[in-house]
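Morning F.,

Quick status update on the modeling queue. The single chain you submitted on Monday has been processed. Sequence for confirmation:
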Amino acid sequence: MANSVTTQVIEDGPRNYVLKVNMLLDTSDVSITDLITPSGLSALGDINGACSRVSIYRIVYDVEDSLTVNLYWDATTDVPIARLVGRGILDQKKFGGMPNNGGAGVTGKVQYDTQGWSASAVLAATFTIHAVKS
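Structure tokens below.
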């Protein structure tokens, strides 16, 4: 069998975007891969303009022990967003979410990779990203 990573768009509205990710790793860790590409999202409702970035305001995750999922803002030098280990909720709503401040070469994309897979292991992770478009 090969690694399986599936995504499901829960909401792609005029302001909010919610993405659910399920992964089953039985072959290797995943190298840096695009997860959210703002240009592929629906237009912003209030100004009918294209989405160029997202701010992440909530991540709910369940990552199997010994596996780590890393999230990044894509830029010339990728900027870490979060390191998902174990189970939990990262809630950033009180201050408007984590903005994409990727610096030089920022593309607006959210990327991920994994760490911790070992030979003959089968490891799973599920997480949901709640974001606001800009």
